[in-house]
Amino acid sequence: MPIYVWNAKSRSGDKKSGELEASSPEAVALHLKNMGLTPGKVKEKPKDISEIFPFLAPKVTIKDLVVFTRQFAVMVDAGLPLVQCLGILGDQQDNTTFKGVLRAVKADVESGSTFAEALGRHPKVFDDLFVNLIAAGEVGGILDTILNRLAVQLEKQEKLRKQLKGAMVYPATVSVIAVACIVLLLVKVIPVFEQMFVDFGGTLPGPTQMVIDLSKWLQAYIMYLMAGVTAVVVSYTQARARSTQFRYQTDKLMLNLPIFGNIIKKVAVARFTRTLGTMISSGVPILDGLDIVAKTAGNMVIEEELQQTRQSISEGKTIAEPLQGSKIFPGMMVQMVSVGEETGSMEAMLTKIADFYDDEVDTAVAGLTSMLEPIMMVFMGGSIGTILIAMYLPIFTIADTIS
Question: Which conformational region is residue 379 in: left (phi greater than 0), alpha (psi within -120 to 50 degrees), or beta?
Fold first, then answer.
């Protein structure tokens, strides 16, 4: 429904204004009269620039979801009606995209949909995990508890994502600076030295001639090189989006990368165990939980293994059995899952596994960062130093010639 901006006067003559979501200006005027106000101007609120150009609309972040979930849990626990909670949280939302989603969810709930059904109509904001846990909370009458669990789950996921992102920021930044410095030297500085050497004449040392040749090549082909890199990146992105086989093979390659592959596996284990534990403790059936966990794994190889596990469980096997020969899930995790099944404490065991592998990821990321720092510094210093030395070699020859 559209949003209208209104002006009105109270019985005492005070001027009031505000916004109201309604089907028509007449509905707004009627609402104001019921509030004891005399309606003035009522006009539809101008569209935000993000509504005119959707690609400019801000994305709904994990932080937005966590704050919303926490606040919603407090309000539900306090006894506020669902529609009123959605209205309050939607109105105070700064993110225009999220505000529109919450208003749409509120309208769907008012028209008779369940909360989970209304959320499910916005899969880009609320994933399968979120929707199914909300559905379990509605059925079990523990919506506030489920919302708090969801907030914890989202916070843990965001922490893992930030850890990996933080580990890559330093080496990526150093790499970009190093490449930029090298290109600047080759394109702008080396030609000046080259002209100077030509004026003096003589034969240039081998390293110097190699750097000058590289500079000439880069000046001639730099635009083609940039276009080629851009084409590779775009082609890779499009191929992953359109080809299931290509995405599967690249996901498999990621898991087999030295150093990084091991971290990706640990992140997968932590995410899988924590998400499954949250779903089981919330009353979601194990088969449904595994299906949702598989779809939200983010890696097709892991998704395939989890779907095979789900199929084995549907045939009567335990969770641990199909995971025994896995190359992704380590033996210790499988043994702990087996113990959890035997003792009936699966939820607690999955949480312990998730906490353990969260710590493992912390340690692995810290080790990766400490290892990459000196490597990147040596690369940057060595590359620039080699170019500078190559440029200074002829200067000694020139000095001998002058003397």
Answer: alpha
